[in-house]
Design a protein that fits this description.
The complex is a heterodimer. Chain A folds into two domains: about 1-85 and about 165-260, Rossmann fold (3-Layer(aba) Sandwich); about 95-160, no CATH class. A six-stranded mixed beta sheet of chain A has the order 6-7-8-3-9-10, with helices on both faces. A four-stranded antiparallel beta sheet of chain A has the order 2-1-4-5, with helices on one face. By secondary structure, chain A is α/β, with parallel strands linked by helices. Chain A is globular and about 55 Å long. Chain A has helices at about 45-55, 75-85, 100-110, 115-130, 145-155, 175-190, 205-210, 230-235, 240-259, and strands spanning about 10-15, 20-30, 35-40, 60-65, 70, 85-90, 165-170, 195-200, 215-220, 225-230. By secondary structure, chain B is α/β, with parallel strands linked by helices. Chain B folds into two domains: about 5-110, Transcription Regulator spoIIAA (2-Layer Sandwich), CATH 3.30.750.24; about 160-380, no CATH class. In chain B, helix 2 runs parallel beside helix 3, helix 8 packs across helix 11 (about 305-315) and helix 8 (about 210-245) packs parallel to helix 12. Chain B is elongated and about 110 Å long. The chains are: A alpha/beta, B alpha/beta.
Chain lengths: ~260, ~375
């Protein structure tokens, strides 16, 4: 059965730089169609873990299977085939400043498909419309706001209908309303377009709103301290650090409601 | 399920029936690979169906297992093709994923592109271009003024200069440039000596090669070559460094902390430029002479004879006019590099533009000033 197989399998992953070990022996799965959030304090290696999962960094030890293939050992064509099936939104959006939004979103299609130009334009425009930017297709990234740039970056990341969409800090630096809109967009993508979404974040309000499952990385123990549904973890975990992390989220959450 | 076949869009099928009713039935996995394969033929088929019937055309998508964004683009294009042929489309079996994927295409039909800032007519645009040139000139004069003031206050009150930064920049622009300056100056000396020796030999005057090389190196070529190298190495580096700081809003951070960017960033670089340029020119002169002396060995002129002739040929004024020019070139290069850095607009490409412009402007100014100095020194008789 294809659907029972996890989309991402991480086994015995040890990552670090040189002699420095950041995280040791990580093991977890990401199931098809879920919104999976990697949590952790600043400097705990969340973004580094993400970069390992998309093959930008080579682990010190261990393996990561993405969409059925091992990305830590894949090279050349095999690696390209994996990367074609994932989409990544980088922290700052990483839109190419010299291209319009339409050209940015069309680029993966130009690289990976033989579609006629007319079809590529139509797809790219529709993806921009999906993230609510249909009318801004001919704008340059510098002409739109930071939140819009992030949405455009999501449109670019998902233009090839990836099996897994990786989002690095999607709501960092956005106001609560814009980030709530972004959460809605992410939920819609996961639920209606059936994408698996992996998010690196520490925006607690949005984690409770969208995450199916979280893992929490801890710098001190160099490993995963908690794994599961965020609300369940908040109510049941007896790990003091997890409690502190999620309780604060809860208080922030209720403050938001009361004001 | 055969994953390979599923991945490459092989399970997608379409059946067209013209009678009794025109119907296009799609089934299987309509993904980007399938779309690549059928985009043109399927649309042609749809047009044929539409032209061959008087009634509506049915588009049955009920048997699609999967449809991605590209698939939705195709469905939408098919609908439009049929409508353009003047027939109604009946879309049958739209549910779930297909519907979700089609939504943005439907919405786009009514979306008006947002307007960019309105651009005026030709006259307004020309006026704007002229005013941009004027503003650029204004900001350059402003920069020259600020730089002069900063240099003046540095002379009056040397303690407020950031000497640590100055020497760090001087090391990068001066000491670390020695290998490349050595190579270029040595080869320049070799080439000059060779070219002139060939001509001089016809008159038996090989010894005068020393005069020729020494005077042209000290007065002209030493400072000039040094300046061009400095512009390429350090002028560009200054522009890129300050430009990147501008893009990252570090320059704004300085301003809000009450630090003057010209005093804080530009002054150390300009002082370093003024400091190292004459030194580099002097060094280039020496190495150039060495190169020439090596060549003259081959023409039977011994070391002592060569350097004796050099001391006879050279005047102190040759040395000092050259070094004075080098100092001015250093000021120009560092100043222009920093100015272009501060003028950087936003974005990654802007830093590249500033860097290019810093080098080009520096070289133009070097050549122009060199010409001015030639005239000036001639009339001063030095």
């Amino acid at each position: 059965m294809a659907s029972a197989e996890p989309v991402i399998k991480v086994r015995d992953l040890t990552m670090g730089f040189g002699d420095f070990v950041l995280m040791r022996d990580l093991n977890f799965d990401v199931q098809r169609g879920e919104i999976f959030v990697i949590l952790g304090g600043s400097g705990s290696g969340k973004s580094t873990l993400l970069k390992h999962m998309i093959g930008l960094y080579t682990p010190q030890n261990g393996h990561i299977w993405v969409a059925g293939a091992d990305i830590t050992t894949a090279e050349g064509k095999a690696r390209e085939a994996i990367l074609r099936r994932v989409g990544v939104m980088y922290q700052m959006g990483a839109l190419f400043g010299s291209m319009t939004l339409l050209e940015n979103v069309r680029l993966p299609l130009e690289v990976h498909t033989d579609l006629p130009r007319e079809a590529m334009d139509a797809i790219a425009r529709a993806r921009l419309q999906l993230v609510g930017l249909g009318e801004f297709a001919d704008f340059m990234p510098s002409e739109i706001s930071g939140g819009m740039q992030k949405r455009a970056a999501i449109a670019r990341a998902m233009v090839l209908d990836p099996e897994v969409l990786f989002l690095d800090e999607p709501s960092a630096g956005l106001d609560p309303i814009t980030s709530a809109e972004l959460d809605q967009l992410i939920l819609r993508l996961a639920r209606s377009l059936d994408m698996t979404i992996v998010i690196v974040s520490h925006e607690l309000a949005s984690i409770f709103a969208i995450a199916d499952r979280v893992i929490m990385l801890d710098k001190e123990s160099k490993g995963i301290v908690a794994e599961g549904n965020p609300a369940t973890l908040r109510d049941t975990s007896d790990h003091p650090w997890v409690q502190r992390f999620l309780q604060r989220a809860d208080s922030a959450d209720s403050e938001e409601r009361s004001t | 399920m055969d994953k390979q076949a599923a991945d490459s869009g092989q399970t997608f099928r379409y059946d067209a029936t013209a009678s009794p009713d025109a119907c296009l039935q799609l089934s299987g996995r309509l993904d980007v690979h399938a779309v690549e394969r059928v985009w043109s033929p399927l649309r042609r088929r749809a047009r044929e169906l539409a032209e061959g019937t008087q009634a509506a055309v049915t588009l049955d998508v009920g048997d699609l297992e999967y449809c991605d964004g590209a698939g939705a683009a195709l469905l939408h294009a098919l609908e439009r093709d049929i409508e353009r042929a003047g027939r109604q489309v009946e879309l049958v079996g739209v549910q779930g994923l297909v519907e979700e994927q089609l939504t943005p295409y439907r919405e786009l039909e009514t979306v008006e592109p947002a307007r960019h800032e309105t651009r005026g007519g030709l006259l307004a645009q020309s006026l704007e271009a002229v005013s941009r040139v004027g503003q650029a000139a204004y900001s350059q004069f402003g920069f020259i003024g600020e730089l002069t003031r900063a240099l003046g206050s540095a002379v009056l009150n040397p303690r407020q200069v950031r000497w640590g930064d100055t020497f760090r920049v001087a090391e990068a622009a001066g000491f670390q440039a020695l290998p490349i300056v050595s190579l270029i100056a040595f080869l320049l000396g070799v080439i000059l000596a060779f070219q002139s020796a060939i001509a001089m030999r016809q008159f038996g005057g090989e010894i005068f090669v020393a005069n020729l090389v020494a005077v042209s190196l000290f007065r002209e070529l030493g400072p000039l070559m040094m300046a061009i190298l400095l512009a390429g190495r350090s002028g560009a580096a200054f522009a890129a460094e300050i430009g990147t700081m501008k893009v990252n809003e570090e320059v704004n951070a300085l301003k809000t902390m009450g630090l003057d960017p010209v005093r804080f960033l530009v002054l150390p670089k300009v002082l370093a430029g003024i400091l190292v340029a004459p030194l580099l020119a002097l060094y280039a002169n020496m190495i150039g002479l060495l190169g020439a002396a090596v060549v003259m060995q081959g023409f039977g002129i011994p070391w002592t004879a060569f350097f004796n002739q050099v001391t006879v040929a050279l005047d102190l004024s040759d040395l000092f006019t050259g070094l004075f020019k080098a100092l001015i070139f250093g000021l120009l290069i560092a100043g222009v590099g920093c100015l272009r850095g501060l003028q950087t607009a936003s974005g990654a490409a802007a830093v590249g533009i500033s860097t290019t412009s810093a080098v080009v402007t520096s070289i133009i100014l070097i050549v122009v000033f060199d010409g001015l100095f030639a005239v000036l020194f001639y009339h001063m008789g030095v």
